[in-house]
Write a structure and sequence with these properties.
Elements: H1 3-12, E1 27-32, H2 36-47, E2 52-58, H3 61-69, E3 77-81, H4 89-96, E4 104-109, H5 117-122, E5 128-130, H6 135-146, H7 154-163, H8 178-184, H9 188-198, H10 203-210, H11 214-228, H12 233-242
Parallel strand pairs: 1-2, 1-3, 3-4, 4-5
Helix pairs in contact: 3-4, 7-12, 9-11, 9-12, 10-11, 11-12
């Protein structure tokens, strides 16, 4: 990861100190990757933290669904590889996130940003994590996702979407689509905030652009997510691109 992307992550997401899931227990993490050495390395780092614990591992999507389905206490966060035998991470992510109390899914990808990452986010994943990211970045990502936020920093979102823009369908003017109908419920200010989100602006930067308090921006962002039915900031930005509200390069 480049220095600028790493710095943006720290500035936009923030490193939250979090001790477990609110009831004193650690955040329960599942590792899904067909490379055993990768899983072993992740487990070593995660289990070294007092507020995190690995509760399950699997080498492909089929095994992941089986293992996660029989856990006595569900996993909180799943680190999901994309390319695996039998069932890939995209299919497994889509099936996992259909459940009412679905775990948060973080897609594992390569430095070159796998072309399927955007599809995984649209399927319900809460972001992506580079496999060669520093250990502290992985730990921050797990805690951030567990808090309900996206792993991708706002300043990285636009770069990701523009890199993967060929995976998006052509924007449609059909106002009857669920995405357009949801977009129509936004106020002018909420649409303005969504556009700035899609352009990679952090809450602090949006507050400066609009001459309002950062707390006000957070309120607007929350309303945007609720009206669009988006799990997190990233999925809201995807809607902005899919509907043509924002165009790549604009």
């Amino acid at each position: 990861m480049s220095t600028s992307a790493h710095d943006a992550r720290g500035a936009d997401i923030g490193v939250r100190e979090h001790s477990g899931d609110g009831d004193g227990g650690p955040i329960r993490v599942a590792l899904i990757d067909d490379q055993q050495l990768v899983r072993a390395g992740f487990r070593m780092v995660i289990d070294s933290q007092p507020d995190l614990t690995v509760v399950a591992e699997a080498g492909d999507g089929v095994e992941a669904l089986r293992v996660l389905g029989v856990l006595p206490v569900p996993a909180d966060v799943v680190l999901m590889d994309v390319r695996m035998p039998r069932m890939d991470g995209l299919t497994a992510t889509a099936r996992l996130t259909q459940a009412p109390d679905a775990p948060r899914v973080v897609v594992l990808t390569t430095f070159d940003l796998d072309e399927y990452v955007l599809e995984a986010i649209r399927a319900g994943a809460s972001g992506f994590l580079l496999k060669d990211a520093p250990p502290e970045e992985m730990l921050t990502a797990i805690r951030t996702v567990h808090h309900g936020d996206a792993v991708i920093a706002p300043s990285s979102t636009r770069r990701l979407l523009e890199h993967l823009v060929t995976a998006l369908p052509e924007p449609t003017a059909d106002a009857s689509t669920p995405e357009h109908e949801a977009l129509a419920t936004l106020t002018d200010r909420e649409r303005e905030v969504l556009v700035l989100m899609a352009r990679g602006r952090s809450n602090t930067e949006i507050a400066s652009d609009l001459f309002v308090a950062e707390a006000t921006v957070k309120t607007h962002v929350g309303r945007v997510l609720a009206k669009l039915g988006a799990r997190d900031r990233v999925q809201a930005v995807v809607v902005a691109y899919e509907t043509g509200l924002v165009r790549p390069g604009a």
